[in-house]
Amino acid sequence: MAEPLVVVQDVQKHYGDFHALKDVNLTVDKGEVVVVIGPSGSGKSTLCRTINRLETITSGTIMIDGKELPKEGKGLAELRAEVGMVFQSFNLFAHLTILENVTLGPMKVRGMKKADAEKEAQALLDRVGVGHQASKLPAQLSGGQQQRVAIARALAMHPKVMLFDEPTSALDPEMINEVLDVMISLAKEGMTMIVVTHEMGFARKAANRVVFMADGQIVEEATPEEFFTHPKSDRAKDFLSKLI
Ligand code: ADP
Ligand code: MG
Asked: Which N-terminal residues, if any, form the signal peptide (predicted)?
């Protein structure tokens, strides 16, 4: 039985007069991998940021595992920890070592002891293939390695769902696959994932569903096979013709 994990209901988001999300409804089940695709400015990042409450919503509800995200205050940090987020730009702390980048959240938010946090962080860094870099600073790593550290850092919070916002867009081409391979293995292990990406190979290999956004709306949803071979809307057809 499908169990909903992320439920976005009737969400509207305005930036001043600008209507960035128009009545967005999206349910992501436990273990499901959803790829969000669409032209620049269509609201993909805004959707991710509202799910993680980095942005407040104008109206509607967002639930994670049956609990509504509070708008602010107590409980927000804990609930936010359930939603791991990986950005295009890695956002590692430049003055902290790789290991410290991964242990910081677990020690501060999850209250883990340093030794335990370090043991778990090292295991996660090994898992994403950068365990040997643990004592280095982010700037000493390649972009692909830094992004894998960012994934380990998010996983260290034991999130229920992982959001990826164009995780490979800032990478040199030869580093894209090393990041996508980590994401594919996470998907295979059953992680619930929402991934904004234009990497069709990833979508075909790992996604259960593709969600196409344009102008702040979800225009269509389909399996990757259906969407890439038989897009329904003119906007999706137009978008795909420019992507290839
Ligand atoms: P995408 O990720 O699909 O490229 P975004 O979610 O970043 O799109 O942006 C959607 C629209 O919202 C864009 O037109 C963008 O200019 C606008 N927007 C995003 N963030 C802000 C903001 N902080 N203030 C005003 N407008 C914004
Ligand atoms: Mg974006």
From this structure: none
Question: Which pTM value belongs to this model?
Answer: 0.96
| Residue 210 · residue 224 · CB < 8 Å | yes
pLDDT digits (tens, 9 = 90+) for 102-119: 999 999 988 999 999 999
Is any atom of ligand 1 closer than 6 Å to the C-beta of 37?
Answer: no
- Say if ligand 1 is within 6 A of residue 50 CB: no
Taking the CA of 49 as reference, the closest ligand is 1
Q: How far apart are CA 106 and CA 139, in angstroms?
A: 23
Predicted local distance difference test score (pLDDT) of residue 244 = 67
CA of 88, nearest ligand number: 2
